[in-house]
Automatic annotation (TrEMBL):
This is Glucose-6-phosphatase. GO terms for biological process: gluconeogenesis; glucose 6-phosphate metabolic process. It is a multi-pass membrane protein. It is found in: Endoplasmic reticulum membrane. Residues 53-187 form the Phosphatidic acid phosphatase type 2/haloperoxidase domain. Pfam families: PAP2 (PF01569). The active site is at H114, H167. The keyword Iron-sulfur does not apply.
Length: 339
C-alpha cells in the first residue's frame, strides 16, 4: 500500500499546486458532499417538491452513512494528512501541501464517506428527476442532463477530498462505486408510511448494532480510537479536530434521523396538502430553522452527553420539516370554512 499512498500524496500535491486559485470551489464542493448536507439541506429542499423522494433521501443517507462507518471500522484506511507524518518518508523532503479546516476528520479513511453518501443520496435525486423529465417531455437529451450533473458532482466532491488531504484517490473511488450501488438498491426499499415501530427498530438496530460491533472488536484487541489519536497529533490546528466528525457522531445522526422520520410520519401521516406558495414559504422557514438547529452549540464533555444531544438534534430535523413548519404555515394560511 505504500506505493498507492505515495502516489496519492503526489496527486494531492499536484492538485493543490495546479488548482490553488480554485480553493474556494473545492471547499464548497467538500461542504456540499458532507453527509450532514443530505439531512439538513437536500432533504428539506426536496420534501416540499416530492415527498416520497425526500423520505428516500433521508433513508438512503442514514443507511449509507452507517454502512460507511462499518466499512471504515473493518477496512481501517489511513488519511493523507496524518500518513505523511506517520510514514516517515517525508522527513527530509516534505511535500508542498496545505491542510484546511475540513481536513482533520477523525475516523478511518476507507472508503470516503463524503463520496459514498453523496453518490447514494444524489442517485435518488437524479433518478427521480430524470424519470420526471422523461415522462413529461420524452426527450433523451433532457433525461440525460441529471446524470451528467450527477457525474460532475461526484467528480467535484471526490477531487475536493483529495485536494484538502482528507482522502487518498482510491478511497474516493471506492466510496463512489459503493455509494452508487447503495443508491440504486436502497431507493427500491423506501419505508414510506411504515409504522413507528419499524423506524424505532431500525434506529435501535443501527445504534446497538454498531455499538456491539465496536465492543466485539475491542474485545479481540482492535483499538478503534487509533484514528482519533492520529488526527489530534497531525492536524495543523487543534481546533480543527471536532467531535462532530467522530464516527459516533455519524452513528448518532443516522439513528436519530430514522427515529425522527418515524415520529414525523406518526404525528401527521400524509402531511398537509399545501399550495405551491405555501410550500415555498415552508422551504424558506425550514432552511432557517435547520440552520439554527445545526449551529446550536452542544457541550462536548462528557462525551455521552454530547452524543445523546447530537442524537436528539437529528430526531428533531424531520419534525421541523415534515410536521412543525408545514403545520404552522397551514394554520396561518388556511381559509376559514364557511358555515
Amino acid at each position: 500500500m505504500e506505493t498507492v499512498y505515495t502516489q496519492g500524496i503526489w496527486m494531492a500535491e499536484l492538485l493543490q499546486s495546479e488548482t490553488r486559485n480554485y480553493e474556494s470551489f473545492w471547499l464548497l464542493a467538500t461542504h456540499m458532499g458532507d453527509p450532514k448536507a443530505a439531512f439538513l439541506l437536500i432533504f428539506p429542499t426536496v420534501f416540499y417538491v416530492h415527498r416520497r423522494t425526500a423520505i428516500a433521501i433521508l433513508w438512503v443517507a442514514a443507511v449509507s452513512e452507517w454502512l460507511n462507518l462499518v466499512f471504515k471500522w473493518v477496512l481501517f484506511g489511513e488519511r493523507p494528512y496524518w500518513w505523511i507524518g506517520q510514514s516517515g518518508l517525508y522527513v527530509k523532503n516534505s511535500p508542498s501541501i496545505q491542510q484546511f479546516q475540513s481536513t482533520c476528520e477523525t475516523g478511518p479513511g476507507s472508503p470516503s464517506g463524503h463520496a459514498m453518501v453523496t453518490a447514494a443520496v444524489w442517485w435518488v435525486v437524479v433518478s427521480a428527476l430524470a424519470s420526471f423529465l422523461h415522462s413529461s417531455f420524452g426527450s433523451k437529451i433532457l433525461t440525460a442532463m441529471p446524470y451528467i450533473f450527477y457525474t460532475l458532482l461526484l467528480g467535484a466532491v471526490g477531487l475536493s477530498r483529495v485536494f484538502i488531504l482528507a482522502h487518498f484517490p482510491h478511497q474516493v473511488i471506492a466510496g463512489i462505486l459503493t455509494g452508487v450501488a447503495l443508491g440504486v438498491f436502497l431507493n427500491r426499499t423506501v419505508p414510506d408510511r411504515r409504522p413507528l415501530l419499524f423506524f424505532l427498530c431500525s434506529s435501535m438496530a443501527l445504534l446497538f448494532g454498531a455499538l456491539l460491533m465496536h465492543a466485539g472488536l475491542k474485545i479481540v484487541g482492535i483499538d478503534l480510537t487509533w484514528s482519533v489519536a492520529l488526527a489530534k497529533r497531525w492536524c495543523s490546528k487543534s481546533e480543527w479536530v471536532r467531535m462532530d466528525t467522530n464516527p459516533f457522531s455519524s452513528l448518532s445522526r443516522d439513528a436519530g434521523a430514522l427515529l425522527g422520520l418515524g415520529l414525523a410520519q406518526f404525528w401527521k401521516p400524509g402531511g398537509w396538502a399545501l399550495p405551491w406558495v405555501s410550500k415555498t414559504l415552508c422551504m424558506a422557514l425550514s432552511s432557517m430553522a435547520l440552520y439554527h438547529v445545526s449551529r446550536f452549540p452542544l457541550p462536548t464533555v462528557p462525551a455521552l452527553l454530547f452524543y445523546s444531544l447530537f442524537f436528539l438534534k437529528y430526531v428533531i430535523v424531520p419534525q421541523v420539516v415534515m410536521v412543525l413548519i408545514p403545520g404552522l404555515v397551514h394554520l396561518l394560511t388556511a381559509k376559514p370554512k364557511k358555515d
